[in-house]
Amino acid sequence: MRDEEKEPRVRPGPPRLVLGALSGALAGVAALAVAELVAAAVRPQSSPVVAVGGAVIDRTPAPVKDWAIRRFGTDDKLVLQLGILAVLAVLALALGVLAVRFRRVGAAGVLLFGVVGAGAAISRPDSGGVTDALPSVVGAVAGALLLHVLVGRLAAGRRSAAPVAGAAPARTTEDGSRFQAWDRRGFVLAAASTAAASAVAGTVGRSLNGARGQDAIASRERLVLPLPGSPALPVPGRAGLRIAGISPFVTANEDFYRVDTALVVPKVDATRWRLRVHGKGVRLPVTYSFDDLLRRELIERDITLTCVSNEVGGPYVGNARWIGVPLADLLAECGVEPPSRGGPADQLVARSVDGMTLGSPLEEVMDGRDAMLALGMNGEPLPFEHGFPVRMVVPGLYGYVSACKWIEDIELTTFDAYDPYWVKRGWARRAPVKTGSRIDTPKPFARPRSGTVMVAGVAWAQHRGIDRVEVRVDDGPWQEARLAAEDSRDTWRQWSFPWQAAKGGHTLTVRATDRTGSVQTEKRTRTVPDGASGWHSVVVTVE
Ligand SMILES: Nc1nc2c(c(=O)[nH]1)N[C@H]1C(S)=C(S)[C@@H](COP(=O)(O)O)O[C@H]1N2
Ligand SMILES: [Mo]
To answer: In whole angstroms, what is the distance from residue 482 CA to residue 295 CA?
Structure first.
């Protein structure tokens, strides 16, 4: 460092405020990296970005959440986390600048973010208790200390009029600061090494978090699903049309839509999983283990699931072959009776390990339909994203009022007494799936050749069944589409319509009629509060 003395005393460097902002950014990165590392020791969900993200999701009004799902689809969670990081980056830069002038305010600001993160982590519905605050607190303290030191030496540089670097040991400057001023190399070195250390800590933390849940993964790999006592009939060969661009009759697990609020997919060890059934009308609360369920007679059924957030023409509908325990039988064993037989409860509230609550009408769950606690999806144990080890599936009801993933608790109650998660946020208490239909091919703005163009898609009215699908070209008459064979009334049905297409721009519209005879309504509604309605149209140009 001696040779530095030969350098001119004051070198034109980046302005102090820029260095301050840089210090703020470094402190922010360090805080998050340390937090991530600590979260690996506590639990992934306690990471401040995940905890704050969860709190943001919970406070997002229904229309905004719906917009996010529409706009970003299954990437909505990634977008949210990137958004949080972007906001934090701006605030960190600002705190750094502020800290140059008011050093304590800068550090206090970083600590304040720690408090916000800790508060979010502790108040999550699935919180692991006060230890969930540790990542935010430890991270913020590390970030605050770093900012204090980095900016302290910037300030020292200003107040002692740029002393010769390295010349004096850390001595008190005019204003009593303990800090020694930065020289250029010192700052660069400190910045580079804290950045590198943060990168290492962050990466190690992330990968440790990712490696969590080995027991759960092992329990899933070991699981061999028993043969169902009541197997599904083979899908009729003619339920699946061979038409390019149509949705396959069975949606592969990898392609199945995913909608939930979980920023970290819960990894539940099946061997330690328990389901408690309790509440109004339950004779004695019962707790089931996974083995208890495996020992029961299982049913296998094809059921099409639909999300209430599915727009007209949207992608949030999928069809799978589920294996599970009939839910009505299990409830009956616990003494539960539906309201029509005088039972005191009319709502079944399912609660998941991540604190989500979904409320289903008990009458429908027990009316003989194949409501189940599903353990398998398309021949394999449930994928983690779809609720391993156990989820609910109820034919005919939108997912948010029936399809609880990672379920761990069933409480019998009344609609009057309790509003579950989505209902508190403006969605309807009861939400049967609306009759819907979608044109899969041709795609919007396609340019097919004139002649015969195959128009095809899917239609659904779970638990009522689809009886008819019609297609309209421009303002012409409704023409009957050909329906593929029906698998069951709980599944969607493919349809096709060979269209003699003349050159020019055309609008294709589809509508379905369910087995109660009611025609899919033309009336357009948004998804909130109980599902979108209206006809799906596609505009194409025939060449
Ligand atoms: N634990 C939990 N279960 C949940 C949800 C959730 O956010 N958390 N979302 C529900 C909604 S809105 C739908 S549409 C279905 C989607 O199930 P899938 O992701 O397996 O397609 O899960 C339901 N079950
Ligand atoms: Mo949903």
So the answer is: 43
pLDDT at residue 160 in the model:
53
- Closest ligand to Cα 318: 1
Rounded to whole angstroms, how far apart are CA atoms 518 and 265? Answer: 39
Nearest to 373 by CA among 406, 349, 399: 406
Q: Whose CA is nearest to atom 8 of ligand 1?
A: 260
Span from the CA of 471 to the centroid of ligand 1 (angstroms): 32
Residues 380 and 482 in one domain: no
491 shares a domain with 417: no
Closest residue by CA, ligand 1 atom 1: 405
Query: Ligand 2: distance of its center to the CA of 316 in Å?
Result: 8
The pLDDT tens digits of the residues spanning 58-69 come to 998 888 888 888
* Contacts of residue 326, Cβ cutoff 8 Å, sequence gap at least 6: 297, 299, 370, 371, 372
249 Cα–ligand 1 center, Å = 21
Give Dmax (Cα) for the chain.
Answer: 95
Q: CB neighbours (10 Å) of residue 306?
A: 25
Structural domain of 58: 3-211
Closest C-alpha among 289, 287, 291 to residue 277: 287
Q: Could you tell me the two tokens for 277?
A: 């059934």
Q: Are residues 273 and 150 in the same domain?
A: no
Indicate if ligand 1 lies below 6 Å from the C-beta of 30.
no
Q: Say if 382 falls within a structural domain.
A: yes
pLDDT of residue 178: 66
Residue 170 CB coordination number (10 Å): 12
Q: Are 301 and 247 in contact (CB under 8 A)?
A: no
Q: Which two tokens stand for residue 197?
A: 């250390």
- Looking at the structure, tell me whether residues 37 and 171 fall in a common domain: yes
Are residue 181 and residue 52 in the same domain, yes or no? yes
* pTM assigned to the model: 0.91
Cα dihedral angle (47, 53, 55, 56), rounded to 10 degrees?
Answer: 160
Check if the beta carbon of residue 354 is closer than 8 Å to that of residue 303. Answer: no
Which residue, 167, 196, 211, sits at the end of a domain? Answer: 211
The answer as to whether 44 is a domain residue is: yes
Residue 470 sits in a domain whose CATH number is 2.60.40.650
Do residues 326 and 309 make contact, with C-beta atoms less than 8 angstroms apart? no
In a domain, 230, yes or no: no
Name the domain boundary from 211, 246, 265: 211
Q: How does the average pLDDT of the chain come out, rounded?
A: 92
